[in-house]
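Aim 2 progress update. The chain analyzed this quarter is reproduced below.
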Amino acid sequence: MQKKMTEFRRTVLIVLAVQAGLIALFWAAMGKTAFVSVLVFAAEAILSWYLLDHFENFTVEHSAGVGEMLDLASKDAFMFGQVGILFYDDEHIITWMSDLFKERGINRVGRKLLVWLPEAEDLISGSSDSERVRLDDRWYEITRTDDGPILYFRDITDREEYRSLYQNGRAVIGMASLDNYEESTQYEDEAVVSAINVAVRTPLTEYCREHGILVKRVNNYRYLLVLNEKIFSALMADHFQVLNTVRKAAQKQEVSITLSMAFARGADSYEELDEMVIKLLDLAQSRGGDQVAVQTAGEDVQYFGGSSEATEKRSRVRVRVMAHTLREMIMRSSNVIICGHRNADFDCIGSAIGAARITEALHKQCCIIAKTGGIEEKLGAVMSENLEELTQEVNFVTENEALNQLQDNTLVIMVDHHNLKQSNGSKVLEKAKKIAIIDHHRRSTEIGVKPMFLYIEAGASSACELITELLPYISNRIELSPLDATIMLAGMTIDTRNFRVRTGTRTFDAASALRRYGADPMMVGEYLKDTYEQFEQKTNALSGSQIYENGVVITPVKGTILSRALMSQTADTLLQVQGVEAVFVIADDDDNETAISARSNGKINVQVIMERMNGGGHMTAAAMQRPRCSIDDVQKELLDVLEDYFGEAESNESNTEN
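Predicted structure tokens:
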């Protein structure tokens, strides 16, 4: 309104100036005869000025007096309800503000509304019904009338404070468990056990005391934690530093004890929180421990930590119990279908063959889904070369053929994977009523199926190792041919990078057992040799490698298709270079996807990095796949994730030192 008045006044002044110029010309031409015109012009100018000034004063008084249009009771009601009113014109200039704003020292009349309150843009455009803004330490909810340029400000500071108090005071239930505690202390004398207890328990109890957490010990290695959302926010802010503290304290005692924690939040039912936290702790430990699993009711699980490799912690007793349970399930089934992951490798097919031998020894019909989902190139060559012998021993089928064999009492065994999306038999799994899982990968949040038997050991080197350990406890009539055993040994060799990583005493025990079955290490070497074409592809990929800080090498491969096996082999090759701590090979694969193959020597957790890009795997071997996209975009995203990862690691290290 004020802008329009200014423009109108300028126009009147221009008209008067033109008129004065014309009269001056008449005066010069006609002399005194133009005197009357001068008098008329003077009177006109005085009248115009008076009218303009009077109209402007009227406009100001009208704007200032809008409040008078509301009766006194209404004004008092708005003040009592802490509601403010704001008028604006067509150009979003504020023309009037109610007494609430004046009382609080807020005066923006004559200014652009959206410059003062950018949050109101969606409200004015109609894309939002209300907005929350903070003005001078007070919260307001803004609404707009549908038929006028009026905004209503309702003071909701008290409501926000009460909501904050409620949110901060909501209960969070947690559990903490000392991983590998029993294995590390069961054969030690009392003095050593006492020293270990002081070393690993004290940091946890002090951490809880400092943050105001109620902690109760459930048994020698497990604790119940009770806290609220405000305390939990503080734990999130320091990235659960107690994990690093306990790990370092255990290392000084020369034991492999780590801390796993789980927190359940966002539910009003304590029973629901209790169920959630038990499942979360199981998730954290099945993923290898030394990490925190957090879940808000109705949302996905978040993981923190996981900076150490899973250790070997399954006992012979546990293996025997698992073997007997699996045997009973097979005996009570009509037939067995075995499925692996897509792009099956030696460990996948080797463990599937081992599971098939178990089933046959128990006199149950069995088939392996291997003609659907793809086969890794080198494995495909081995299977083609030995096709006649393999088909005499094992029934390989497609997924549709397996569907035809699926019955209500059929047992479906998933080997070397535990996620429905990764399976080469997903249609079978969706319809199966009895499912068993045998896997060595760190457990993901979503499995996609409801297994009756779950055997996931992140501390094992391979699925072939797990299957080999089960054999003597299930039946003494199980027979593996030398070819079967050699394929299984090849699976173990690849997953351990020639027995350099993820190997424990149980790994070598399993390898020895396979040797007794006739496995040939020389043939394994022949299986894993590169062809000249593969060697050439690998060499070309290596030439594009780029080294970054912290010993990270990224190899983007553009303009060519690489198999995932070749990507992982390229990464393994680079990892042998001095000073290289982790390798990430990015390429388009033969499944019309863009993938990353990640490898590490153990100092950098590539599993955590790949999980942040919706992938997964182990601490030293992980991967990610997504629909075909730009290599450059994936590399940029990876660099951002690496920056966050190392930033958090540096922050954790400095906090631990302090």
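The mean pLDDT is 85. The chain has five domains: 2-64, 67-163, 170-305, 316-527, 535-657. These observations will guide the mutagenesis experiments scheduled for the next reporting period.
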